[in-house]
Design a protein that fits this description.
two-stranded antiparallel ribbon; 3 helices; alpha+beta; elongated
């Protein structure tokens, strides 16, 4: 009985954290988990980066790239086919992040 209660409260905390709206300093990277309608979500914090300069934009790209790598890392049953196996996942994850990244850069440059 204690295990069930502990799991229920753990799931409730996790659902609450995911359900919260992202901060303006976050990039939310998502991908589907077929065949279900579930999604895998990674939140990348960029609020501490100066996006007005090239170094800051490069750092944002690195952070989002790490999130995409983490989300799409799946072992391939066919040696040498890792890129082909993960390409659809990576495309979807980057497609979810790119507009947010562009928006963050536009907001940063608007506040000169």
């Amino acid at each position: 009985m204690y295990v069930t209660v502990g799991c229920a409260s753990l799931f409730a905390m996790e659902a609450t954290a995911v359900a919260q709206a992202p901060d303006e300093g976050d990039i939310v990277v998502t991908r589907k988990l077929p065949p279900s309608k579930d999604r895998l979500v990674r939140v990348v914090y960029i609020g501490d980066i100066n996006l007005k300069d090239a170094a800051g934009r490069t750092e944002m790209e690195k952070r989002v790239s790490k999130a995409v790598d983490y989300m799409c890392a799946i072992p391939s049953p066919i040696p040498g086919q890792e890129k082909a196996m993960t390409a659809p996942c990576r495309e979807e994850a980057w497609a979810s992040a790119r507009p947010q990244m562009e928006g963050a850069m536009a907001r940063a440059n608007a506040h000169k």
